[in-house]
Design goal:
Blueprint: H1 5-13, E1 32-36, H2 43-58, E2 63-67, H3 74-81, E3 89-94, H4 96-104, E4 116-131, H5 140-149, E5 155-158, H6 164-176, E6 181-184, H7 188-197, E7 202-206, H8 207-216, E8 220-224, E9 249-257, H9 262-277, H10 279-288, E10 291-292, H11 297-318
Helix pairs in contact: 1-9, 4-11, 6-11
Length: 323
């Protein structure tokens, strides 16, 4: 059963000591917008629309998904950071917008910790290293050998500067002593179109979009970035089997602008976690190549701080910078 209007009225009316009172109108009494800071068609867009649809089935007010791509999720994140903290503008943040960007950009116009209130982790899954069929390799070891023999010859696509698909490739080069040419796009869909056509030769793409192309036979799988093999595709090895310690996951989580009443945040978090624990959500996300991953607010806040520290070390070691 979903959250009642009475519960949300109470949540929005009660605020922390000294905070201004929030309207007593039933929440939500108008459309709620979930900003996706990346282009349509990628994993973040897919999971955001799933959550929006499920919330829409509980609430009478519509849930609108709005794509605001750019700067590795920074454009959308900046927009939401400056939005009114009333519960009507949220963001499906990513490891890029809410962890990597903090160290990758020198002039970031938002603070991923200070400017947002975490609601819940939504999804977490590995990236999948895939290559165009024309590339004469089938394993991580063969790819490393080819890159060392032909430095700079292969181009890798990413969903944009600062995205996990970019930083993972930089980390790969750093750990293997190889060299590739980076071609950033404004989202995974545009990158995938060129990868299938052979205009770029490889990518460390999010599992859902990359796995779909592997299953369609248009791309060759090389390895996943998780600690263990993906259960639904056990023949695909992990990167860590060849490069010890190479483990990384991409994630998506729901945030509100800082200052949103905590009772409303708690209510939103509880509703989202109910959605993610449902068998339908678990199966749907698993089919996409990611995991439904609800997480309490306090735990999610600490997770974001930990991820920010972790990726800062990676960015520093790789020398990657943007803007």
């Amino acid at each position: 059963m979903g959250i009642t209007r009475r519960q949300f009225v109470q949540g929005l009316a009660l605020t922390a000591a000294g905070a201004p009172l929030v309207s007593l109108a039933a929440y939500p009494d108008r459309p709620v917008t979930i900003v996706v800071p990346l282009a349509a068609g990628g994993v973040t867009d897919i999971v955001a629309r799933y959550v929006a649809n499920q919330l829409g089935s509980v609430w009478t007010s519509p849930i609108v998904v709005e794509n605001r791509p750019g700067a590795g999720g920074g454009v959308g994140a900046e927009h939401v950071a400056k939005a009114k903290p009333d519960g009507y503008t949220l963001i499906m943040g990513t490891v890029s917008s809410h962890a990597i960007n903090a160290s990758l950009y020198d002039n970031l116009r938002y603070d991923n910790i200070r400017d947002f209130d975490p609601i819940s982790l939504v999804a977490s899954g590995p990236n999948l290293l895939v290559v165009h069929p024309s590339v004469p390799v089938s394993t991580t070891g063969e790819l490393i050998a080819y890159l060392k023999a032909h430095p700079g010859r292969l181009s890798y696509g990413s969903a944009g500067i600062g995205t996990s698909t970019h930083v993972l490739a930089e980390l790969f080069q750093m750990k293997t002593g190889t060299e590739m040419t980076h071609v950033p796009y404004k989202g995974s869909s545009a990158m995938m179109t060129d990868l299938i056509a052979g205009r770029v030769q490889l990518a460390f793409d999010n599992m859902p979009t990359a796995l779909a192309q592997v299953r369609a036979g248009t791309l060759k799988p090389i390895a996943v970035s998780s600690a263990e093999r993906w259960a639904d595709e056990p023949k695909i090895p992990t990167l860590s089997e060849t490069i010890p310690g190479f483990v990384a996951t991409s994630w998506q989580g729901l945030f509100a602008p800082a200052g949103t009443p905590p009772q409303a945040l708690d209510a939103l978090s509880a509703e989202v976690q109910k959605i993610l624990k449902s068998p339908a959500a678990v199966a749907r996300f698993r089919d996409l190549g990611t995991n439904a991953a609800g997480m309490p607010r306090a735990e999610f806040a600490e997770f974001v701080r930990s991820e920010t520290r972790r990726w800062a070390e990676v960015v520093k070691a790789s020398g990657a910078k943007a803007g």
